[in-house]
Amino acid sequence: MGRNFTGSGLVDGNIGTDPNAVYNSGQLFVNSSGVAFWKLNDGTNDGWYEVGLLKFVKGKGYEGSIAMGQSHAAIIKADGHVWTVGYNASGQLGIGTTVNQTVFQDTGVVAHSVYCGDLNTMAIKADGSLWCTGYNATGQLGLDCTIPKTTFQNTGVTASSVYATDRYTAIIRPDNSLWVSGDNGIGMFAFASANHSIFQDSGLFAISASVAPTFMALVKPDGTVWAFGQNAYGQLGQGDTVAYLNPTQLSTWIGAVATKVVCGDYSTHVLLNDGRVFACGYNLHGQLGLGTTADYWGLIQSSDTTGALTGVASIECGRDHVAVTKTDGSLWMCGDNMYGQLGLGNTIDQSKFQPVGVNVSYVNCYNTKTAVIKTDGTLWAAGYSGHSDLMGISTSPTSLTNSGEVPKFSVDTNTLDPNLL
Fold it and tell me: Is the CB of residue 390 less than 8 Å from the CB of residue 381?
């Protein structure tokens, strides 16, 4: 009933007292009473250690339970299967054909989490193995070829999270090392060999990362934020518009560290552990949340309708719009709203974070689309839908609309399944 993975903070007096400790080569076991045990296999402290009662809350979404690409979408349903819908010319739906689909199709792949690039889909199985399908012209699937795939293929590497764009893919592996495959065309991956079609170790370590067409940002394990690539709009946060092809550190914060970074096409947004959000870069649509539409070349704190944006629990970013959930479960968004992706019932851009809804447990954004899982387990979405790729919704609603789908974790309140971890 366990699965191998790297865990952090799963500690008590029997294992350790450091909440930031990471225990590799371990296994988590959940018994019939919901008590979790951590098994160490480090040769020194082998054995099972109780780490407490795990409770799975109905409607609790998680990163990787839903994902959207340029014109397709994927979800993990309660049975653990990956289901996909939308445009399929490159085989990104992983169903063995290139025929578009207007309703979700079962790929038959059982996975813990799923992620989308523009024209491809990646799934992480319970054993940590990474499987990919779809567009592969620059080797971004990491399969040692540039041939597109119409079914999920094993990359031969393990991953804990995936970040994909149109030309390259980045993964964080269980040891927090950052690996990349593909080619962004600007020489950003100076560490890589000539073969860009396999995942290669960047030499960097990260707890969060985000990719854009021409730059990348990451949060290192110490909570510092680094970025590299093109910088035409000041999205690297250096106070200039000079390209940096090597990772360069952004601002530091007294008394706080970063926990997550997300990127739009030309903007960067950083979530701190105290619930504040800082942003920089392109701001034509007000996506920095500053109350203006002027670009900003250095990180500055975002705002909502009540003042400085605070109390943020999670953050996601589309092409030019940003969504956050607060600790009270409320959803707030700002930026580009051409297709109603802010879910406000109109198509007016917003330069400060606006309240959109309540009782939201997870939000996901891509390009001009937004999808949320509410605390009752339902999946809602707003924005552009050209191929029913807005979570199976055929129209392009400007208000959050119920898709009728129920992603994984939306199960009976006390269901215990180690594959959910």
Answer: yes
Quick one: DSSP state of residue 89? Answer: T
- The upper half-sphere exposure of residue 234, i.e. CA atoms within 13 Å in the direction of its Cβ, equals 18
Distance CA 270, CA 279 (A): 6
Residues 6+ apart with CB under 8 A from 321: 264, 285, 287, 333, 334, 335, 336, 337, 341, 342, 365, 368, 370
Judge contact between 227 and 247, C-beta under 8 A.
Answer: yes
Residue 51 one-letter amino acid: V
pLDDT along the chain (421 residues), means of 10: 29 34 42 44 47 43 88 93 98 98 97 95 95 96 97 97 94 95 73 75 94 95 94 97 93 89 98 97 98 97 97 97 96 98 98 97 96 93 96 97 84 37 37
Intra-chain end-to-end CA distance of the chain, in Å: 11
Task: Give CA–CA dist 165/312, Å, rounded.
Answer: 25
3-class DSSP state of 404: coil
